[in-house]
């Protein structure tokens, strides 16, 4: 396939040739099969005249490396009514996500080799590439777990969340030591339950959950985790940081961190409208803190944007604030929301590329992924940057069937490619059931474990 005249994140216009699973060439001008190179020679790089190829005109379109979502909850095994690997992958593909990394708090939790194998079999139905994290509980079996093609350890929970996998400081330190000795990164859910504001439990309003799980509880847990990581020379990554204080602490201690779209675009001011659909861990913060988080995303303090895609059915969420489960869907809307923010001038397209692709690949040792360069996997997303549209839960592909971003603007992919194969494509000019509705097509489930033995080990590249 030859993609003509695409706009890259840095504004350059380039032709991109895909051969098999890889990007073969990126140049100012590439000649199509059977076409003579241009007189100035710009058509010579990567040209092939001995084959037939499809030529796509991407004039006016933005071409990006696919998003690597380092934090999703596929819900299988245990909760297929919430999500399956197939529905997760379809939602990911429709949102421009080409790799998803699953967390261990399923039923049963992924804490030993046998449970890893069971989950890996289910993951073969995923339309996009994937990784599987291992979890830590008092019953975990590190030897068998680390014997598997594990993506990372974690999220390791320093406070209970969905799945009740919270552990104390001593087991946490033991787990970090085990991972560090094997060169495995550790992702951390950083909240200190001893600093929760228990008086909030007397309230019944939607804001009570944010009042309970305080900002100080996050900052203190990040500090605790980073101290352990520094002492054991471990690679720690702080999941879903929700406060400027948590982000700054991780950055000052030399650890990486991620921010979710819900902490980036929503705050406690939205809870009156969201109700229990706004309950997640860590919770939404004040508007002032939200703006501080956004500033740190723009200025580069935050390393990664990841979704913490944690779907529940609407019926499950339609309960009181203390009965509703924590978590919101987000894998399909993350990149569209970030692209809409870039379209509005709030951050650059280059920053979106780095947050969603280049940085995750560098931090988590995925040398084939995250960049639009010759030799990399052809994980590509094509969008029309001028086409924003309303996000509507009924149009999305997660089993959840709802979104906390209802009616907000998103810039959605026209097509998504995983290792050279189009896994999602749409036509039409809008969403909904009218004449302008999108016709959508999904490819076969071709996802592979990005840590599988068939993928070569290469040196990890530092973040640029």
Structure description:
The chain is of the alpha/beta class and 464 residues long. It has a domain at 66-363: TIM Barrel (Alpha-Beta Barrel), CATH 3.20.20. It is 26% helix and 18% strand. It is built from 13 helices and 19 strands. A 5-stranded antiparallel beta sheet has the order 5-14-17-18-19. Strands 9-10-11-12-13 form a 5-stranded parallel beta sheet. A 4-stranded mixed beta sheet has the order 3-2-1-4, with no helix packed on it. α6 (215-231) packs parallel to α7. The longest helix has 17 residues, at 215-231.
Q: Mean pLDDT across all residues, rounded?
A: 91
Which parts are unreliable, with pLDDT below 50 for 5 consecutive residues or more?
Answer: 454-464
What is the rounded Rg? 22 Å
The proportion of residues in beta strands is 15-25%
Task: Give a topology summary.
Layout: E1 2-7, E2 13-19, E3 22-27, E4 55-57, E5 62-65, E6 67-72, H1 85-94, E7 97-102, H2 113-123, E8 129-132, H3 142-146, E9 153-157, H4 169-181, E10 186-189, H5 208-212, H6 215-231, E11 236-238, H7 244-252, E12 256-259, H8 261-265, H9 271-274, H10 287-299, E13 304-305, H11 314-317, H12 334-343, H13 349-363, E14 380-383, E15 389-390, E16 409-410, E17 413-418, E18 421-427, E19 439-442
Parallel strand pairs: 1-4, 6-7, 7-8, 9-10, 10-11, 11-12, 12-13
Antiparallel strand pairs: 1-2, 2-3, 5-14, 14-17, 15-16, 17-18, 18-19
Helix pairs in contact: 6-7
Question: How would you sum up this structure in a few lines?
Answer:
The chain has 13 helices and 19 strands. The protein is of the alpha/beta class and 464 residues long. The protein has a domain at 66-363: TIM Barrel (Alpha-Beta Barrel).
């Amino acid at each position: 396939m030859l993609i003509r005249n695409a706009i890259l994140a840095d504004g350059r216009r380039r032709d991109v040739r895909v051969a098999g699973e890889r990007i073969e060439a990126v140049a100012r001008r590439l000649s199509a099969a059977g076409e003579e190179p241009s007189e100035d020679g710009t058509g010579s790089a990567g040209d092939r005249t001995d084959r037939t190829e499809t030529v796509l005109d991407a004039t006016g379109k933005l071409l990006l490396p696919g998003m690597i979502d380092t934090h999703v909850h596929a819900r299988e095994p245990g909760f297929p009514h919430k999500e399956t690997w197939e529905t997760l992958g379809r939602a990911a593909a429709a949102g421009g996500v080409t790799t998803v990394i699953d967390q261990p708090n399923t039923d049963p939790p992924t804490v030993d080799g046998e449970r890893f194998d069971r989950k890996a079999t289910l993951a073969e139905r995923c339309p996009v590439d994937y990784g599987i994290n291992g979890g830590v509980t008092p019953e975990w079996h590190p030897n068998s777990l680390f014997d598997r093609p594990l993506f990372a350890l974690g999220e390791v929970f320093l406070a209970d969340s969905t799945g009740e996998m919270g552990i104390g400081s001593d087991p946490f330190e033991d787990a970090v030591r085990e991972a560090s000795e094997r060169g495995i990164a550790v992702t951390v859910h950083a909240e200190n339950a001893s600093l929760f504001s228990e008086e909030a439990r007397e309230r019944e309003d939607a804001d009570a959950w944010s009042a309970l799980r305080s900002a100080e509880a996050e900052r203190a847990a990040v500090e605790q985790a980073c101290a352990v990581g520094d002492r054991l020379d471990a690679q720690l990554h702080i999941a879903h940081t929700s406060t400027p204080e948590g982000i700054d602490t991780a950055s000052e201690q030399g650890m990486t961190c991620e921010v979710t779209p819900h902490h980036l675009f929503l705050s406690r001011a939205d809870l009156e409208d969201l109700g229990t659909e706004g309950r997640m861990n860590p919770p939404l913060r004040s508007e002032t803190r939200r703006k501080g988080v956004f500033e740190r995303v723009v200025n580069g303090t935050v390393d990664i944007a990841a979704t913490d895609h944690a779907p529940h059915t609407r019926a499950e969420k339609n309960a009181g604030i203390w009965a509703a489960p924590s978590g919101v869907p987000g894998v399909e809307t993350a990149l569209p929301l970030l692209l809409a923010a870039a379209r509005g001038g709030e951050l650059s397209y280059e920053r979106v590329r780095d947050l969603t692709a280049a940085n995750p690949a560098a931090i988590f040792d995925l040398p084939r992924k995250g960049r639009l360069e010759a030799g990399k996997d052809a994980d590509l997303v094509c969008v029309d940057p001028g086409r924003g549209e309303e996000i509507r839960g009924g149009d999305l592909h997660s089993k959840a069937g709802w979104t906390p971003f209802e009616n907000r603007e998103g810039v959605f992919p026209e097509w998504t490619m995983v290792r050279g194969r189009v896994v999602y494509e749409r036509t039409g000019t809008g969403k909904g059931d009218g004449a302008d509705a999108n016709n959508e097509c999904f490819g076969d489930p071709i996802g592979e474990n990005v840590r599988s033995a068939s993928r070569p080990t290469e040196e990890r590249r530092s973040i640029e």
